[in-house]
Amino acid sequence: MPELEQAPATAADATKNANGNYFVRFTREQRYMHATLFTTFLGLAATGLPMRFSESFWARKFATGVGGFGAILFLHKLCAVVLTIAFLIHLKDVVQRGIVNREKGIFWGPTSMIPNWKDVKDLFGHTRWFLGLGPKPQFERYAYWEKFDYWAVFWGMVVIGFSGYAMWFAPFFAHFLPGWALNAVLVIHSEEALLAVLFIFSIHFVNTHLRPDSFPMDMVIFTGVESEEEFKHKRTKEYERMVAQGKQRSRLGIAPPLWLINFSKVVGYAALFVGLTLLVLTLTAYFS
Amino acid sequence: MNLLLGSVLTFFLLHTILWLIRSRYSQVKNKGANGGKNA
């Protein structure tokens, strides 16, 4: 739900792009939000999984390495607080733009994150394409699997976050929650977090980065811009809408500098490596 | 809880595997025509 028409580039900047036009997909604020999200998520997973599978050899090794399970819990809570702040900033931004400023496209329409009928049609159309039974659907700004990613995180933030704080501040929550609920939050927190970890480190990684037309990494979440060819290919419907409305100029960006591409690669590959390592360790512990 | 975990992961795992296979198939099929960016 970006303010893409406030893109920093001018047409003159765009003409400097040696490899054709680049278009803004994510604003700087959105990229910072994603960076905070994945950094803290990796931190939460790296500290939460050893507590969930505390009997496994790697969890004990890790605990010994960082100063014990008390230190792990401290780091887990630290990441949780940072992520909570980021989540509240995002909520404030959505309310500000969607309700206070009455900005169009936040809660409904082709640029919204709210699922709509086209997403249902796209899911079935995509499945038909997988099976060779129909053409590939043309996607809008956010495809159905991207919306699922967004809402899975949103749901996870509320459920895992609330259950986590209920455990952290159990004496306070005991004033208005029955005893069984405080036991239940442990199960909810643990199982929902496990689902989140398995989903992000397998499905999200493959759907977003490791599938053939993005492999080995979709850089747009780091650089904020994508080439015209990529834009046209991946989000045909949005591209056509932009052209029909004559908004190409306002969406133009500048080619990402080499340092940003290299920095993004280092950060992105490190995140992929940590995530996939945690996935293997989780599966090992889960099935043993 | 296990049902939720299992069904979400199974659905998306299947979705992802089918997507990978179809993308790869399209990529190979269109490789000569446009450099393999059509998956």
UniProtKB/TrEMBL annotation, chain A:
What SUPFAM superfamilies does UniProt report for this protein, alphabetically? Transmembrane di-heme cytochromes
The yes or no answer to whether the keyword Cell membrane is present is: no
Alphabetically, which GO biological process terms does the record hold?
respiratory electron transport chain
What's an example GO cellular component term for this entry?
membrane
Q: Which residues cross the membrane?
A: 32-49, 69-89, 150-173, 193-210, 266-287
Gene3D superfamilies, from UniProt? Transmembrane di-heme cytochromes, Chain C
Full protein name: Cytochrome c family protein
